[in-house]
Design the sequence.
């Protein structure tokens, strides 16, 4: 009763455009700003499954903030958000240059994705904990972590609180709710769930946020995180940053036939939202909603941020080898800095002049921090962590064999 | 003094730890309501509540990954992997995360946790219920690895492990759970309740991590063993009439090199016994250290008696398992040389 | 703006009933036989998402086969199916006793779940490959694998084709489409996907079937399998046997908030069906549908079999420690053997007398096989695999260090 | 004879294998359209089609698990793990499945596959782009482990590995991808194209698995090394003026013990060099074997020069990495003893 005809064949998904193609994203369904509803915190997730397939947006083409997700932030907060994004962008630019100058071994920028970390950070309370990837420096900026400390880490200089042990951008600051970044993709997603469970076990009120990229959702830890979060209703926000690319691999390879990555949550009964990651206000509003659900002990929320990695994957990557150069410009969700700027101007609380001035301000701040940091050292010169440090912190107390090795090493 | 099986000693250690410190939480597959497939967590859920002792989904990755997050939060998870053979799905979390968190954050975040797991063969468990993966942990900087061989040590070492500020791999030789097994699978086993080494106080005490124990003093040769093999080695010593000194390492990392070196310098001969496959087993490290530090005292090559370099078989278990006879033969070879 | 009130607390799901409770499954929503529709093979999976929450059933309370999933099997095929299930049950009973007698080290029975393997096996073609767990012996019986060969494996005797190297019930028979069982849960699920991909790569027409238990869906390999199957549209049937228990852990711990395990497929865009695992005809019809989809290169299907593990997890387990003794009897889906028997009787092609006779026939066959197998040996006596075998098959060619070790071992 | 970098040699080996045998398939993260982050699979998708060379989701478990199923089906997967540091999520599939499939089915199902992965440090990759996990493979019965140190060997060994009937772990020292690096990080590197060892024929050839190569003959002491450390050891020999014999092991398992034993019996002294952490590293096994088999010829303790027992650091990379100076010191110590 084998009704099949021809032989089997393997399907291998391909991105729409490769170098040489003219990108055209008119097929990407982008919901109108204000069009997607805002469920009640305790609404049955089965009743808003559609929200995993739409895109929550607040800022419309005229720069207005519209719909049920608008209205949470004051003008001052919005201005601070804009400045944070601009700071991150300026910082990234300087560090990219520093890497080319050999001052650090490596760098990864956030270009085009600034809204996500900067807006999410504002939705948290002190004591909450992020488990970030390498592309959430915005969380630190939003938490007012000093730029100099960030640079010290990037330069692996003697001011680096982690003693130069980690690759650039693998920051850590407990005080600023930023868990030590691991280079292993996805591992920290389930740790975020564990941290949140610990908070619940302890009768605390703090919540956790896990971070993962589109490509990394394929990793096992993503599944473990969803299973544990779903079973124990952990107070955690599970963030997926879909910037369309995982190095050279387009998001369709990780996503497969599921339509969206947000849909992954449905198999676990986890409420899942999809949001315009380049819309600062939308990101903040959705983050706030998910954080509040967690805080009310209503359990996890999965949030997919739809965005675009406008730069290379890292300083080791040249994206023109695998995608059209124009793809970034063709991407339909625009630039997060320009969109928030336009909104503030439309509101009459910002201006082109103020913006130019602000650009100078943030650049000054970045340069001042850079001077301070470089006065300590860069990877190639100045004060670096001591070689003795190599042997510290393997354990709290150094065991005899390590003492012996340190001695052998001459330190 | 109350007598306890190794299972009871392990259960009791966790009971004492949970009673003393609200940060101690216990979880794993079947450890909650049921109390663990080996009963090592029996009664803990009832006594301390579902939020401190609970069943988990079957995801070793999830168990360890969640525990790391909890440890970073400030709890002290003591978790069970149902069999050491099933720790591999969690190996990335153990190696890349638990072991390195303190180092990579320069102490800002730490990972005080214990990962308990039954190890070793001798129960006809075949390839997936018999493995001894200790060398896969000792190679990883940032982990401590402990293997008790008596109920007393099991409780004391487990309490020390739970109180340790760093991640500890706690390997429980399941062949010893109920009785000490004097080396011969075809002879009756003395249950712990009739054995001297099963006296386990009710109260809190610790056995220090990093200290070996000389189980049998001798002048002719030194045997380095741990877990079940301590009994196999002792049986071989008794039966061979060779005056062997049997050292129970108890902690593999950090290793008590001083006790080992002092003994080998005294005897001039060394036999290492473990159940794991030979190549790149922990015996290799022991042999390397002993020849490095006792070279001029050695009168014969160091011998390793180990599991063969094959997966762990089922029907042929007792041909795989290092027997007193194989250890005795090694003793004899080592005594003849030099 | 923290609107939360009290402290957080940890949710730990609990089964409805524990020892001492009186089980009452009236809350389990069981669809009427014949009520669930049968989609077209190429229907968009988004249009039958409801089928992951219903239960496809064919045999109704009167023993009739009704609805769109009925009618695929002839009377002879059904009788063969009944005999297969009875054979498996008789075989299990004998082996449970053999284990108590010390003839083998361990045993795991299929009690209550016989329909699944026996019916699924009939939906495959020669050359297709199952990647089974330890509880799919029915696949072998359906494929007419000799009982003696099965017993030789259980006894680890010299007739065991795998040389006594594996725990009892970890069978292997390439010829019968039964991949060597691994003791590690879930690992083989993704291998099934790989095998299916290989068939597609090769332009073959053979398909694969992966098998996993409810509890094991929490493992990472389950996720990897779904990701790969979804991305490459692998010709594979992904079976989840939900027998309500994973040793002492009820299925709610693995399932979390998702409603059903079948729903896991939705996050991947994989069509997902849920079927009465105790209804031989329904299992077969759904299997056939999923196999046909795979064969037509339409990609993977996830199938959840709703059943109940009527016995202990293994001979090492006593379920009365964690669930009420009466729970099995209270389980609403009945017994697969009795249900198919009733259907055949209702159809007039079977009778109580024929059934009694059949019981004797299958028991005779099992006893004859047992005699043959025990004539070779059991774990404790007779001809066992040679100790030399210990060193074979680590590699195709034995390397020098293993030759030396074998020599040392005296063989 | 054409000259090739190690990357080109590896690419070429796969090209030759895919051309010769339709069962050979190549996949991994970024290996398809882009040709791999190190370009080791460049051009293969274009030449052989998407169904034989393709990108995968970021799931090392999935990559290896799927490859096992394919190998069992009858294909010959040659897969890439982007960095050895990321193999841990696949470790269960490698250890519990690939390594044991032949054994547990008594040859009914087999797993001919190659798992390629860049290893080792020296590129400022820090803890997650620098590891040398070879000992985690050599401990596992059923795996072969290969580490080439030249473009010629890389191609020949990779072809041998693809044609091998069993799973082979193929560790590529990424410090050697573009040039041989003569041991000093602060001195200019000779690119392969100017180096003698980069002559790589276009055609098919194999270098046998299980055979070491004596890279430098000497009488005074034996150095056992592999991968990048072959160059560090050679530099140390050249600079110290000590007549060291440098053996490039090339295959760690099965190990060419005969070549090692013959050399140590000749020289009476042995230094082992590897990048991995010291404790339970492959050097421990080498030391154990050498003392077992050459005991009466040894005139000094066997020394190990290795990475320290810490995670792999970033800023302090060159304090971690075994330098020619550290190797030279070991030579001197070993020559002074005895
Ligand atoms: C376990 C693991 N596998 C592979 C890598 C190598 N790697 C680093 S980043 C990356 C792509 C990640 O893509 P995505 O998750 O989409 O994050 P993005 O870089 O786009 O933010 C890969 C494959 C890694 N770091 N860890
Ligand atoms: C990786 C791994 N972890 C744990 C185990 C121990 N174990 C064996 S069976 C089992 C329960 C499996 O339950 P389920 O998947 O529901 O299958 P069932 O036994 O009900 O058929 C467990 C935890 C194992 N075999 N492998
Ligand atoms: Mg991405
Ligand atoms: Mg089950």
Sequence:
């Amino acid at each position: 009763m084998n009704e099949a005809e021809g032989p089997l064949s393997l399907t291998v998904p391909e991105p729409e455009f490769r170098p040489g193609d003219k990108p055209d994203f008119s097929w990407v369904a982008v919901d109108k700003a204000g069009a997607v509803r805002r469920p009640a915190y305790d609404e049955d997730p089965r009743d808003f499954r559609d929200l995993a397939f739409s895109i929550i947006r607040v800022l419309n083409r005229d720069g207005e903030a519209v719909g049920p997700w608008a209205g949470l932030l004051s003008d001052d907060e919005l201005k601070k958000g804009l400045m944070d994004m601009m700071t991150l962008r300026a910082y990234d630019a300087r560090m990219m240059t520093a890497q080319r100058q050999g001052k650090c071994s490596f760098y990864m920028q956030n270009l085009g994705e600034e809204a996500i970390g900067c807006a999410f950070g504002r939705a948290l309370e002190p004591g909450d904990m992020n488990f970030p990837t390498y592309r959430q420096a915005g969380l630190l900026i939003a938490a007012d972590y000093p730029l100099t400390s960030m640079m010290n880490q990037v330069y692996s200089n003697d001011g680096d609180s982690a003693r130069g042990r980690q690759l650039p951008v693998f920051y850590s600051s407990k005080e600023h709710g930023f868990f030590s970044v691991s280079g292993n993709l996805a591992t920290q997603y389930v740790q975020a769930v564990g941290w949140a469970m610990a908070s619940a076990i302890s009768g605390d009120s703090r919540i956790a946020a896990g971070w993962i990229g589109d490509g990394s959702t394929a990793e096992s830890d993503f599944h473990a995180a969803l299973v544990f979060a779903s079973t124990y209703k952990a107070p955690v926000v599970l963030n997926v940053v879909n910037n369309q690319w995982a190095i050279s691999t387009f998001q369709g390879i990780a996503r497969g036939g599921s339509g969206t990555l947000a849909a992954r949550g449905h198999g676990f009964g986890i409420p899942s939202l999809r949001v315009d990651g380049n819309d600062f206000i939308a990101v903040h509003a959705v983050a706030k909603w998910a954080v509040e659900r967690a805080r009310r002990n209503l359990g996890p929320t999965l949030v997919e941020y739809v965005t675009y990695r406008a730069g290379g994957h890292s300083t080791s990557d040249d994206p023109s080898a695998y995608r059209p150069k124009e793809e970034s410009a063709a991407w339909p969700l625009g630039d997060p800095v320009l969109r928030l700027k336009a909104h503030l101007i439309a509101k009459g609380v910002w201006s082109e002049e103020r913006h130019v001035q602000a650009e100078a301000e943030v650049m000054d701040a970045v340069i001042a921090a850079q001077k301070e940091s470089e006065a300590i050292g860069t990877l190639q010169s100045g004060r670096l962590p001591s070689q003795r440090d190599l042997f510290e912190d393997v354990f709290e107390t150094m065991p005899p064999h390590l003492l012996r090795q340190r001695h052998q090493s001459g330190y | 003094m109350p007598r306890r099986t190794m299972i009871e000693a392990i259960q009791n250690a966790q009971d004492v730890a949970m009673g003393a410190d609200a940060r101690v939480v216990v979880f794993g597959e079947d450890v909650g309501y049921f109390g663990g497939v080996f009963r090592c967590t029996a009664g803990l859920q009832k006594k301390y509540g579902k939020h401190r002792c609970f069943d988990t989904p079957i995801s070793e990755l999830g168990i360890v990954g969640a525990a790391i997050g909890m440890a970073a939060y400030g709890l002290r998870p003591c978790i069970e992997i149902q069999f050491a053979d099933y720790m591999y799905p969690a190996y990335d979390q153990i190696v890349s995360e638990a072991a390195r968190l303190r180092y990579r954050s320069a102490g800002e975040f730490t990972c005080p946790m214990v990962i308990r797991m039954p190890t070793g063969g001798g129960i006809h468990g075949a390839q997936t219920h018999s493995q001894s993966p200790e060398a896969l942990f000792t190679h990883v900087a940032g982990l401590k690895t402990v293997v008790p061989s008596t109920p007393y040590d099991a409780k004391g070492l487990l309490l020390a492990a739970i109180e340790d500020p760093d991640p500890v791999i706690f390997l429980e030789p399941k062949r010893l759970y109920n009785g000490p097994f004097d080396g011969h699978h075809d002879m009756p086993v003395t249950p712990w309740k009739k054995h001297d080494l099963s006296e386990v106080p009710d109260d809190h005490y610790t056995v220090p991590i990093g200290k070996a124990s000389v189980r049998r003093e001798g002048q002719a040769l030194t045997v380095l063993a741990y877990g079940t093999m301590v009994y196999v080695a002792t049986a071989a010593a008794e039966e061979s009439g060779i005056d062997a000194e049997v050292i129970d390492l108890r902690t593999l990392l950090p290793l008590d090199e001083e006790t080992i070196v002092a003994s080998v310098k005294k005897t001039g001969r060394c036999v290492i016994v473990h159940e794991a496959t030979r190549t790149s087993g922990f015996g290799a490290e022991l042999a390397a250290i002993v020849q490095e530090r006792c070279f001029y005292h050695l009168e014969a090559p160091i011998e390793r008696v180990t599991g063969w370099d094959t997966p762990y078989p089922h029907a042929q278990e007792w041909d795989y398992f290092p027997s007193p006879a194989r250890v005795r033969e090694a003793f004899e070879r080592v005594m003849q040389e030099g």
Notes: The mean pLDDT of chain C is 96. Residues B 29, 58, 82, 86, 89; C 133, 135, 183-185, 213-216, 241, 243, 245-247, 309, 313 surround thiamine diphosphate (ligand 2) (CB under 6 Å). Chain C has two domains: 45-314+326-380, 387-411.
